[in-house]
Write a structure and sequence with these properties.
DNA binding; three-stranded antiparallel β-sheet; HTH_17; 3 helices; alpha+beta; DNA-binding; Excisionase/Xis, DNA-binding protein; elongated
Length: about 70
């Protein structure tokens, strides 16, 4: 019997994927999450290092609200 992954699939991104999209680092993305500026889910088990996943829609909203007024989208 094979075990199924508990990681969300589909429209969820890793911190590394989000970092590439925003031109940053995974550490910066984790900082955005822990500061509350970017919503994410933690798929890690136990008390170890968190394994965050960010919904595509959450990233889109974050980028929309972070846009400087007057900039072209």
């Amino acid at each position: 019997m094979t075990s199924a992954s508990v990681a969300p699939t589909g429209d969820y991104l890793t911190t590394g994927q989000v970092a590439k999209r925003i031109g940053s680092t995974p550490q910066h993305v984790r900082s955005l999450i822990t500061s509350g500026r970017l919503s994410a889910i933690n798929i890690a088990k136990g008390v170890g290092r968190p394994r965050f996943r960010i919904a595509e829609s959450t990233l889109s909203e974050f980028l929309r609200t972070a846009q400087v007024p007057g900039e072209v989208a």
